[in-house]
Design goal:
The chain has 279 residues and is mainly alpha-helical. It contains 15 helices and no strands. Helix 13 (214-221) crosses helix 14. The longest helix has 14 residues, at 35-48. The protein starts with 6 loop residues before the first helix and ends in a 15-residue tail after the last helix.
Length: 279
């Protein structure tokens, strides 16, 4: 639970004045606040999207003489993502670096996710390239976020190519990837209902949870059809043969590699490292 902080105290702390949060707690006869307590409080704010309070807690943490680590910064960036404030997320990323804290997978993924929520493909690619330039390898969450980004613009083929590549990179496919693929089928003009159903049954054949993507499927094929397909999946009555694995060196495999090279060849704008941030 959050500390009971009066509104006037929050206003004072926003301006950096008045007694610190630690002093208020001690004066109330309560134990002093540890780093772990601050982290837990910021975590709650992050999940609730309470950016204002998370910022105050970080500021009070610094006033108490505690140097923020990547844990606090990552949670603050996540709070920015929750409220859709990409620019503020990038500001805290830059602040993290200025404090000598090295960003990790969570840091980059959070900013990329913030760009994905806004549908900013270009900015997401820039952060993806910067991530690789700094020696931080993309992980399953990174690629899952890009699937979500591609889904918004109905790029079905792009998502399929990426999904064919992931197992070879050591990232098993999960429900999140299929949800993005099915959503992309719905965003395509015109919607590709057959491809959405095919993706749904492929997920079921792999032993993943069909119930996790039923809502996405209903948006593409309609609620009644989605319910019917869900019942078929539950009975394991799948239409058609099991899809074959792409053979190395095939035309499809080469197309996948070309798609990956597009990501690998992407250059990082100099504004990502020097001078005034592009925002």
């Amino acid at each position: 639970q959050l500390f009971p902080i009066p509104t006037f105290a929050m206003e004072n702390w926003e301006m950096g004045r008045g007694p610190t949060l630690s002093e208020v707690i001690v004066d109330a006869g309560l134990p002093s606040i540890s780093r772990t307590s601050y982290q837990q409080q910021i975590k709650v704010c992050s999940h609730d999207g309470n950016l204002r309070r998370a910022e105050i807690l970080l500021r009070e943490m610094k006033r108490a003489g505690l140097v923020p680590t990547h844990v606090e910064f990552n949670r603050l960036i996540h709070a920015c993502t929750r409220v859709g404030d990409t620019k503020r997320a990038e500001v805290y990323f830059k602040m993290m670096e200025e404090c000598g804290v090295i960003p990790d997978h969570v840091s980059y993924n959070s900013v990329i996710h913030a760009c994905a929520i806004r549908g900013d493909d270009q900015r997401a690619l820039e952060w993806f390239a910067r991530m690789k330039m700094q020696g931080v390898s993309p992980n399953a969450v990174t690629y899952g976020t890009f699937c979500k980004l591609l889904a918004r613009s109905g790029q079905v083929d792009e998502i399929e190519n990426l999904m064919k590549l992931l197992p070879d990179l050591g990232f098993p496919l999960n429900e999140y990837h299929f949800a993005s693929l099915i959503s992309a089928c719905g965003a395509k003009d015109p919607p590709d209902k057959n491809k959405a159903e095919e993706a749904f049954f492929t997920l079921a054949r792999m032993g993943l949870r069909p119930s996790s993507v039923t809502r996405c499927l209903a948006k593409v094929v309609g609620s009644e059809r989605a319910a019917f397909l869900a019942r078929r999946a539950a009975r394991k009555t799948f239409p058609g043969p099991k899809p074959a694995r792409t053979a190395p060196g095939s035309k499809v495999d080469k197309a996948i590699q070309a798609h990956v090279q597009k990501f690998a060849a992407y250059d990082v704008p100099s504004s990502m490292f020097h001078g005034t941030p592009s925002w």
